[in-house]
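Narrative summary of target 7.
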Amino acid sequence: MADPTKGTLGLSTLSGLGTFGGGSLGGGTPSKRWMTPGWCGCCTCTYFLDKYTRADNNDLGGNWTESAGSWEIENYRLITSSGTGLCLCDVENDHDEHVVSASLRGMAIGDQARLVSSKIIGEDSYWFAEVTWQATTATIELYQRTTGSDTQRGGTTTLYNMRPSVPLHIRIGFDSSTICLHYRRDTGDIWTEAVSYSAGTTDSMCGVGTGTVNDEVRFDDFRLEQHGTLYERCPKCESECYSCSGAMADEFLIVPTGDLDGIPAVKRTLFPANGYVVRRHMSPASPPGSHCLYRYRIEPPVAIPGFATVGVVHLSLGSQGLFGDPVIYPRATIADIRFVFSMGGVAWRKIYTPPSESQPYIDCAALSASSGFFLRDPYRAWDGPPIDWEITAI
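Modeled conformation, tokenized:
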């Protein structure tokens, strides 16, 4: 059992764990991938992907233009030691709206890697996200470059427990009115917003670049995708389902509090005094807004007379329209704890804050004080006293 004395989840307690590296599969120069209609509503959200899984070469292939600096493919990554470098992907979308992402890695203190969006053809103007690595931290900033002059847009996001050689995945989404910058620390994480800024997209030409380079900067998994404003289930300018600032915790301790003696005896075993340690679990097949979960498998499953056995407890954090309809039920911040029956039924009740346009994300520091949480069984009305949950990042 995890240590319950750890600090309650808040904006200053988050820490990302794990790293990821380049692929090792072989392959030739990538090209557009038009496929049969898929679940996203278009052919496929991804219309260009380059993992650089081809032989080491100074020639990047027909899909890339080295606009500034010297670039090469080495050990299945795109690398450069050139400062103020720029390498553009020649594949463009049929729409100006787009999403571009890549893995960025600086190898020395002070190295700066950039992800480039909306390059205006024939002009030294574009947007870029810049990651700067320091000894134990990394910063993320958004810039607009206009005819060679850079202006920072929005604030600076600082990530802790980072160091040179640790990669960071960066994503820029650009629709007709907003550019948004997201990050994730590893492929098991989900996207968290760093900066959002009102702007109009100009083009879908994207690429990578550098600022200061003291050693070497590496790129991997460069991807261009359709934007969710055009195809509903493609990426959008919003966090996927995690709405706290900072990186995701790998685990949470969820502890029931309140009048536990008032719970019907047949269900009391679902509420152990020490709570549950739920661990991050990715389930891409689930509906949008719930596909990022923390869960604990109850062993052995709890058998409740007259009901199916309960085998799993879930926690999910998100920001979405209540009851699945963001029009009828406006956006609200949600912490969702569910007990799942083995036959597919769900006993659950959502904790949520009042809908607010000015506060669209979860105030994680307030989760430990949330009240009015009930256990509901799927066959009867509300059952049992209110149960509060203390939710703590561990």
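The chain has two domains: 46-225, 251-393.
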